[in-house]
Amino acid sequence: MRFKISLEKEPKHIDVVCCVGWNNTEEVYSCGDDHVLKRWNLVTNETVKVADLPQELYPTDLHWFPRAQVVGKKQGLDLLLITSADGKFHLINRNGRIEKSVDAHKGAVLTGRWSFDGAGLLTAGEDGQVKIWSRSGMLRSTIIQSDTPIYSAAWGPDSNQVLHTLGKNLVIKHLAPNSKPNRWKAHDGLILKVAWNPSNNLIVSGGEDCRYKVWDTYGRQLFNSIAHDYPITALSWSPGGDLFAVGSFNTLRLCDRVGWSYSLEKPNTGSIFNIAWSSDGTQVAGACGNGHVIFAHIIERRLEWKNYEASMTSRKSISVRDVSNEAREQLEFPDRVIKLALGYNHLVVVTPSQCHVYSTRNWNTPGIFNLREGSVSMVLLAERHFLLAEKASVYLYNYDCKLICSPRWAGMQPETLNLASISISNDTIAVRDQLDSKTVHLFEVGSARSLVDLPSLHHWVGVVEVTLNQAGSALERQIAVVDRNRDLYLALVRGSLHKKLRKLAPMIQSLCWNTDTNILATVQDTNLTVWYYPMVLYADSRLLKKTAHIKDSRHVLEFNIEFGKSPTVMSFVGNHLRVRRMDGSLVNSVISPYPTVLHGYTSASRWDDALRMCRFVRDHTLWACLAAMAVYGRELETAEEAYAAIDEVDKVFYLQNVKKIPIRAAQLAEMALLSGNVSEAENLLLQNGFVFRAIMTNLNLHNWNRQVSIFHRVELDPEKINEKVEQEYERERDNG
Asked: What is this structure's pTM?
């Protein structure tokens, strides 16, 4: 992936260009020290002077009112915020007429930003103050007062926090009164630019020490670049949060969200003072010190799926290659490509007005449908359908281009969705609430264009990532949740154990489900861990570590050589893992194929075949997986042999005693107890009339209060309960 640069032969501005901004995906506005506001049309390649600004107005920053907040509202739709060196900010319409000018600071106003919700704006200046203003330009509060000029500031994702520079430090200030700011030293030189992305909640900063750095909101450094030749003068996140652009003297760099660089361009532009992304995340515009406005669009984006490789060769063409037979297809489109996704034997390509769906079996006749809103921010694929996140809604389509449903939830903001906040499978949609990060909304995808709201999942800590497994039936659907403490929890979406979060592992940095089986790969602290059977939490959690393949401390040197520090799991197809190192290089790794085969045998109830394979392989991890699968499937004979193979003698004796019980319901209850599901065991016994056994179960577990509740659950008076217990006791004694 790289930038393809477009630069006019002669500059259109006669002085320094200070700031640029996108009005839509085809129009860019620019202004500079020549006091001229210009409009650039990228379709017709025309440049028009919109207005002559006052001679005393030397612009320092420019920001359009967020368009996502003005759908259906005419007022403020094309309102432009321009800050200037005379201490004022100006609200200007798209025709260049100044609607309002406000004296904001003593000295230059160095930055001005609309909030993401459009409810207000912030300004920061040379006087060391940060001020919050209403949409109409009325002062609400002065949140920062310091003796140091504030060169850059940015809103937090929920518009209730502000990030600003303070010399060599970065400060996050909450707007709530009496809140303590989070401050840390970020650079060795003066910090000139900061940017905070609402989708991934990451911060990027750059300064006079000629470095750019990536941070989380706790001030933890995630990436530190090499020293450049000149100070970093411009930074900007793409709307989706997967990329950011860095500008310096005669330098334009495209970077991944982690920090490593995709490409480095050296245009003859002088210093790039400002960078702005288009709303679709495919183009950037830059304000240059020599009077130019530089444009760049992304090309050579490359995707892989099994034996297929798709790459953008230009703005309107994609090349597809089958590496197994070197067959190539060249796909041409009438308009530029905004988004593309490859997976599950389909290629989905989005242009500004249409969506093209290709099958790997036929590249000549794609399915095509028109977009409803014309601005797609994300494409997410599953085996049977795919999801498009547009400007104001989320749509689910099948691969025949038919609309299945459009999920909605309270406070939805589709433009800020990313791969960590939403996940889909064949029958379920999971999305993290954008107002309350502790809540995950769940939807069941019906068969006849229907959508059923499932009970939401509530966690006690804020959730940062959700993902659904792709294989198995709807009753086996699992959701993996990573919270702010980086702890990984697992829950069943449906069934008797649904919504019960169980902790799988701590210190999770990255995770990915296998596309074919219910196997989970994670980067845990400094280990790469593959959980061959995560459902072990619901079968026998004591086997958790025995069912995982871990490169532990004995292999740390090997791990660091192969994957480096803080790798990211990109894909997990079959038994092949693709891991992205911190330097951007891809490393392919493989796991044993036997767990995948074992999953296939057990899902088809071929327990004899599973036993034969385990006897042949003689691997303790495989035997542990089979033991957990057999317990979950209530297969006593298989579970007994598997436990014996891994030397779990106590459980072997327990299963032998269970096999002696002549009543099937009682056997199932004992197996539920082995899995740790006391309530399920009690329900099984009570539903089948075994009140005495339910009481004795709670006695053996020292659950004294549960005995009282049993009497309340059965609809019998105390005398009849005693009579029923005595009859059952006699029957139990006769059966031995």
From this structure: 0.85
